[in-house]
Prior knowledge:
The chain is about 5% helix and about 50% strand. By secondary structure, it is mainly β. The strands form 2 sheets. Strands 2, 4, 5, 6, 9, 10 and 11 form a 7-stranded mixed β-sheet that branches. A 4-stranded antiparallel β-sheet has the order 1-3-8-7. Strand 9 and strand 10 (about 110-115) form a beta hairpin.
Amino acid sequence: EVQLQASGGGLVQAGGSLRLSCAASKFIFDNYAIAWFRQAPGKDREAVSCISIRDGSTYNAVAAKGRFTISSDIAKNTVSLQLNSLEPEDTAVYFCAALTPYSGHQCWGVDDYRGQGTQVTVSS
Length: 124
């Protein structure tokens, strides 16, 4: 069974933190890299962070800005995204996706599966 489910979003004041969780099926964990994306109303989807389950290497996009940290728990088949020093501009729906890496890449690639998102709202 293919499953990706994001959770942990909410309303937080600027400067606050949230921890998002992506629960994935074993099939996903065994075969794909997992990434977090976000999409704000009226804006394009934006890459945030990616983790290679195979070797644990992580890759942060510009959106992460050094404030976000991605990690995985293989025993629980979950990928977490720690969001620190949140800003109103971080307000978006955050969702996780299972990626087949581009040739020569360890993580970023084509998203074969995508879960439902979780809303993050940062107030000023």
